[in-house]
Structures are given as C-alpha cells and as structure tokens.
Write a structure and sequence with these properties.
Blueprint: H1 6-23, H2 27-36, H3 44-55, E1 67-68, E2 71-72, H4 76-87, H5 92-95, H6 102-112, H7 115-126, E3 131-135, E4 152-156, E5 159-170, E6 177-185, E7 198-204, E8 210-215, E9 228-239, H8 250-256, H9 260-286, E10 288-289, E11 292-293, H10 300-327, H11 334-358, H12 370-379, H13 387-400, H14 407-413
Parallel strand pairs: 3-6
Antiparallel strand pairs: 1-2, 4-5, 5-9, 6-7, 8-9, 10-11
Helix pairs in contact: 1-4, 4-9, 4-10, 6-7, 9-10, 9-11, 10-11, 11-12, 11-13, 13-14
GO molecular function: acyl-CoA dehydrogenase activity; flavin adenine dinucleotide binding
Family: Belongs to the acyl-CoA dehydrogenase family.
Subunit structure: Homodimer.
C-alpha cells in the first residue's frame, strides 16, 4: 500500500487530533443538547465545533481533486484515511462538513448544477450554512430497483408540479435541511427506455404541499436531529430551472455520483469497527470470570484475532477501490466499489456484534454505545442499495469477463444514493 504524501499525513494528524480534543469530549454534550432541544433542533455545540474546524482549514475534504472553496485537493485514497478517523465518532463528519447526504448532493451540484443552482444551493452547502436530503426511495415500490421510482414531475408553464411519496429521506428532520435532490419520473410513457424516464430536480423543503407523514425509526431510534423522513408531495410547484442537467437524465446523474460516497461510508464503517474492537479488547481484559480475564476464556482470543484480520481486509479492499478510482476512474473501479459496499458493512456488523457479546448485558444497554453502533451499521447493508443488488453487479462484472454481457445494464442497476 502506498504511503501518504507528507503534507497529507500532517493533515491527517491534525484531523485526528481535532477529533480527540474537540469532538470526542463533546459527544455527551451534543446528545444532551439534542434531548433538551426537543430532538429536531440544531445543537449549539455542533455549530461551535464547525466554526472552529472551518477556521483551522479542516473543512470540505471530500471533493477529490478540488482545492480552495471546493476542498482540500485530496484524492479518494487520501480522503479515505480521514474518513476512517471520522467514522469512529458519529458526529465528526458533520463537524468537517463531510457528512452524507450533503457530500453526494454537493458533488452532484458541482458537477451538473447550473450557475444559478450552484449559487443558490451549492454555496451555502459548502459553507455549512444549510443541509440537504436525497429523495429516491419510495414506500410504494421496491426501491432496490431505481427504475421503479414512481413520483412524478410534470411541466406546467414555467413550473414543475411534483406528486408522490418518499421515505427514508435522511437528513430531512434537521431544521437546517433546505433542499431535497428529488428523483422522479418526467417521461410517463412506459414504452420509453427505462433509464431515460427519470430526472433529478431540486425541491426546496419549505415548498407548499410537502407533508412530513412521519419520521422513520431504526430499531426504535429516531436518529435525531438528522432523521429519516417519510414525506408526501402533493402538487408541489418548483421553478423549471430547478431541473438538474435536463429531463430524463436522472440515471446519468446517479451514475456520475457513483463511487466516492461508498468509499466514505465504508471507511467510516472501518473506523467504527476499530472502535468496537478497541472496546472489545479493553472490556475483555478488565473483567474477570472463572478466574481469568474474559479475553482468555473460550474462543475469545480467536474472536479478537478474527476481528483484527477482517477489519484489515475491509480497510485494504476499500483503499484499493479508492486507489483504482484515482488511477483508472470510477467506471473501471465499479466492481471494486460494489464489493466494498457488500463486505465492509457485513464485517463491521460482525465485529460490533462480537463486541456486544463480550460486554455481556451491558453491550445491549445504554451504558455503552455498541447497540447504537450496531443499529447504524446494520442499516448500511440496506442504505445506498441492499447487499444483494451490489452482489448482483459484482457477479455481472465477473460474468462479463467471459461473455458479451451488456455492462450498461450492470451500471444502471447499481445507482448511487450516497
Ligand atoms: C437508515 C436508512 C437511511 C436511508 N437513507 C436514504 C436516503 O437518504 N435517501 C433514499 O432515497 N433512500 C434512503 N434509504 C433507503 C434505501 O436506499 C433502501 O431501503 C434500499 O435501496 C432498498 O430499497 P427498499 O427498502 O425499497 O427495499 P426493496 O426494494 O423492497 O427490497 C427488499 C429486499 O429485497 C431483496 N432484493 C432486492 N433486490 C434484490 C436482488 N437483485 N437480488 C436478491 N434480493 C434482492 C433485498 O434483500 C432487499 O433488502 C435509507 C435506508 C435506511 C435504512
């Protein structure tokens, strides 16, 4: 594995130090302020930490290759190392303005947005003044297959009229969420090509006709203040100029954002797995049963060893995918990106589960963050496409090596939601 450039290593050290000294000690304060603020609020400590990170230049690391206003000029491979650090502390990525779904949305706006869209939405997102959501998944259709999306946008004069329902719209619970990147049908002709019927359009959260039907729960957690909303759109009108790139180009945009989001998710997951492994080691050495530390009992040494081996595998596979994105491009790296999206959340789920077991009853309680960590990681086997869809892509790429399999089919079945 190649070394980091010295300036990137120095940057990574600064990020790690900032997380340890400024963010980790504020985790409890953040949770307390969410509680006191009625959950769907902006905890003041988050804005304080953001201001500090921004002032120190620790901001917007995520757009590969961009410097200045758009980022720090890091490659995907370099950024991956930062993402791992951020992943160990749940609130860290927001502090550096590097959290989903804003990162993917900013990437889309930067690549495909008009000048007006950039001015209105990208600038405040880059500045961390507002947040955003991505609305693809719908309650009424199997959304693993993105061509099933049924919400509509119909042109009426200078406006699109939007109707439909979306759920699992992450981030929509945050009062700072001002804009949804909304995937919808613009070509109602069922005989039109399946991947040319959908578009992505910008829908301001304060538009008339948007109803929050409920906030979704993950194993009973509401994930406030970020949250995942079930939204209903009834005759919501937005200016024609809110269309991104053009009608029928929704899948083209979704393909364009394929990649970095999955690297971010997976490296953050590795960071979380490392935290679980550390907790497993600390707990199993500090508690004694049957006259020995827990670590020395039964197969616990093997469990610890396997966790280390599997986390290293997860990290290396993710770094390899990131390296390929940097060197041969997102398209050629598509199978590797799908591979990590399957294997990394599965490995990290297992590691957290083992850490829970080694903590006994405390592992599933509120005393340790493990249950919460597990819930978050388990959702990553669904969010941004379930395991099976990504496995299907990997298998198709493999089969394609030995036949004339149509690769465009693979790509369009595996659109990015991160
Ligand atoms: C916490 C969380 C956050 C999310 N955030 C967002 C968000 O911000 N924006 C957004 O648009 N969506 C979001 N999602 C939704 C997520 O992307 C979808 O849940 C996912 O794509 C699956 O769609 P579905 O729920 O409709 O499942 P379905 O399409 O109904 O699929 C159900 C199951 O069918 C099986 N299946 C599907 N296809 C295949 C196949 N080819 N082979 C074998 N089995 C298959 C899988 O086991 C799959 O889990 C989020 C989900 C969660 C849990």
């Amino acid at each position: 594995m190649r070394d980091l450039r010295p300036e990137v290593q120095a940057f990574l050290d600064r990020v790690a130090a900032f997380i340890d000294t400024e963010i980790r000690p504020n985790e409890a304060t953040y949770a307390q302020q969410v509680e006191e603020g009625g959950r769907w609020c902006v905890p003041p400590v988050m804005e304080e930490m953001k201001a500090k990170a921004k002032a120190e230049g620790l901001w917007n690391f995520f757009l590969p290759g961009y410097e200045g206003e758009f980022g720090t000029g890091l490659s995907n491979f370099e950024y991956s190392h930062l993402a791992e650090k951020m992943g160990a502390v749940g609130i860290a990525s927001e502090v550096f303005n590097c959290s989903a779904p804003d990162t993917g949305n900013m990437e889309v706006l930067e690549r495909y947005g008009s000048e007006e869209q950039k001015e209105t939405w990208l600038k405040p997102l880059l500045a961390g003044e507002i947040r955003s959501a991505f609305g693809m998944t719908e309650p009424g259709v199997a959304s693993s297959d993105a061509t099933n999306m049924a919400a509509t946008a119909v042109l009426d004069g200078d406006e699109y009229v939007i109707n439909g329902e979306k759920w699992w719209t992450s981030g929509a619970g945050d009062p700072r969420c001002k804009i949804i990147v909304f995937m919808c049908v613009t070509d109602q002709d069922p005989d039109s090509p399946r991947h040319k019927r959908h578009s992505q359009i910008l829908v301001p959260m304060d538009s008339e006709g948007i109803e929050v039907r409920k906030m979704m729960e993950v194993f009973g957690w509401d994930d406030a203040p970020h949250g995942h909303a079930h939204l209903k759109f009834t005759n919501v009108r937005v200016p024609k100029s809110n269309m991104i790139l053009g009608e029928g180009r929704g899948f083209e945009i979704a393909q364009g954002r394929l990649g970095p989001g999955r690297i971010h998710h997976c490296m953050r997951a590795v960071g979380l797995g490392e935290r679980a492994l550390q907790m497993m080691c600390e707990r199993s050495q500090s508690r004694v049963a049957f006259g020995k530390p827990l670590s020395q009992l039964g197969g616990n040494m093997d469990i610890i060893a396997n966790s280390r081996i599997e986390l290293n595998m997860a990290r290396l596979l993710t770094l390899q995918a990131a390296h390929m994105m940097d060197t041969v491009g997102n398209k050629v790296a598509a199978s590797e990106i799908a591979q990590i999206k399957v294997i990394v959340p599965n490995i990290v789920c297992d590691v957290i589960d083992r850490a829970i077991q080694m903590h006994g009853g405390a592992g599933v309680s509120q005393v340790f963050p493990l249950a919460r960590m597990y819930a978050g990681m388990r959702t990553l086997r669904l969010a941004d496409g379930p395991d099976e869809v990504h496995r299907r892509s990997v298998a198709r790429y493999e089969l394609g090596k030995y036949s004339d399999y149509d690769k465009t089919k693979v790509e369009s079945s595996n659109v990015s939601r991160s």
